[in-house]
C-alpha cells in the first residue's frame, strides 16, 4: 500500500496529511485501514464503524484528530478493508 500511495503510515490505521501552520484543521485524514481484528466493522458497503487509532486509551490526537476533522468538514476518506486469510 505504501509503494502505490494508498496508505503512507503503514503501522497506523489512519493516514493523514499535515497542513501548514496556522490552519484551523492542521491534520486531514486521507485513508483508514481496517484489519478485522476488532469489532469495529460492518458488512455494509457504505458505512464503517471505526473505534479509532491506538489501544484502549483513545486520545483525540494524530490520526484520530485528523479523522474527526475530516468528518467535521466533510472531507472524503479512503477506506481500505482488510480480509481474513482463510488459510489462517
TrEMBL record:
Residues 1-88 form the YDG domain. One of its GO terms (cellular component) is nucleus. Pfam families: SAD_SRA. The keyword Repeat does not apply. It is found in: Chromosome, Centromere; Nucleus. InterPro entries: H3K9_HMTase_SUVAR3-9, PUA-like_sf, SRA-YDG_sf, SRA_YDG. Its main location: nucleus. Keywords: Nucleus. This is Histone-lysine N-methyltransferase, H3 lysine-9 specific SUVH7.
Amino acid at each position: 500500500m505504501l509503494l502505490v500511495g494508498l496508505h503512507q503510515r503503514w503501522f497506523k490505521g489512519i493516514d493523514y496529511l499535515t497542513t501548514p501552520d496556522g490552519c484551523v484543521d492542521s491534520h486531514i485524514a486521507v485513508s483508514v485501514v481496517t484489519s478485522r481484528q476488532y469489532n469495529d466493522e460492518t458488512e455494509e458497503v457504505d458505512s464503517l464503524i471505526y473505534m479509532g487509532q491506538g489501544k484502549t486509551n483513545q486520545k483525540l490526537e494524530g490520526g484520530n484528530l485528523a479523522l474527526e476533522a475530516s468528518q467535521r468538514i466533510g472531507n472524503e476518506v479512503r477506506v481500505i478493508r482488510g480480509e481474513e486469510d482463510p488459510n489462517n
